[in-house]
Amino acid sequence: MRMKRQWLVIPVVFMLTVILAACGEEDAIVDYYNGEMHPAWEDVDEQLNRFDEGLIRLEYGETEEGESMMDAARDEIRAIRDSFEGRSYDSEPVQDLQDQFYEYVVAVDDFLEGFYEAIAAEASGAFGAEEELTLQSLISEAQRQENSLSDMINDYIEEYNLEWEEEGEMDTEE
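RE: above sequence
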C-alpha cells in the first residue's frame, strides 16, 4: 500500500510544477511586454508618424526640415532594432515574443531603407515597376510582421489568462 501512495505523489508534484511554471510565465510575459516591448513598440509608431510628417513637409517644399525628420525617425528605429537584437530570455514565451517583435522592427527598418532607395531612384529617373514592386513587398512584409506580433500577443492573453489594462499595458487576471 505504501508503494502505491508514493506513485500517486509523482503526478501531483508534476501538476504543481506545471501550474507554478505557468504562473511564472504569466509574470515574465507581463513584465517583458510592459517594461520593454510595449514602450519600444509605441516609439516605433511615433517614429513612423514622424517619418510621415517629414514626407508631408517634403511635399510642401520644406525639404531640409522634412529630410531631417525622416532621417531622425529612421535613425531612432534603427537604434530600437539594434537594442533588441540578440536579446535572450529564460522564458520561452518571452523569447518568442522578443523574436517576433525584433522581426517586426527589422521589417520596418527594411521598409524605410527601401523607401530611401525609392526616393533616390525617383530622383535619378530610374524608378519603375520593379522598384514599385520592391517597395510594396517591403510594406507588405512590415504589415505581416506587425499582424503576426499582434496575433501572438492575443494568443498569449488567451493562453495565460492575461488582460489589458489602461494605457495598453498587460496584467495577470486576479
